[in-house]
Amino acid sequence: QVQLVESGGGLVQAGGSLRLSCAASGGTFNRYAMGWFRQTPGKERAFVATVTWTGDRQFYADSVKGRFTISRDNAKNTVYLQMNSLKPEDTALYYCAASERLIATMRGNYDCWGQGTQVTVSS
């Protein structure tokens, strides 16, 4: 089973940027689609972005298209989420996840999850 550790969260003003990282260990990283989800209190964990095994295809939630970019470096066993033009509604606990599928956008299709990293966007 792969272990995932997120980092890079923090406090930022609206319009600012953050880059989240997710380091993987204990598995075959290039055999997993990787994804980012986010969750706020009282709400379901929501899909943000995913990238295929090779990094050649990406898919995003409508709410982040044009602002967020997901990428992966298989040589470093790391996936990234570059977040630009941040809005207060982006405030959430962000989770990294791994799926044995080629690509996945549903929570139930992911096998392993990180512990989460908090992103807070102020007005």
Written overview of the protein:
This protein is mainly β and 123 residues long. It is built from no helices and eleven strands. It has strands at residues 3-7, 10-13, 18-25, 33-39, 46-51, 58-60, 68-73, 78-83, 92-99, 112-113, 117-122. Strands 2, 4, 5, 6, 9, 10 and 11 form a seven-stranded mixed sheet that branches. It has a four-stranded antiparallel sheet with strand order 1-3-8-7, with no helix packed on it. A hairpin with a 6-residue loop joins β4 (33-39) and β5. 35% of the residues are buried. The mean pLDDT is 94.
Itemize the secondary structure elements and their pairings.
Elements lengths: L2 E5 L2 E4 L4 E8 L7 E7 L6 E6 L6 E3 L7 E6 L4 E6 L8 E8 L12 E2 L3 E6 L1
Parallel strand pairs: 2-11
Antiparallel strand pairs: 1-3, 3-8, 4-5, 4-9, 5-6, 7-8, 9-10, 9-11
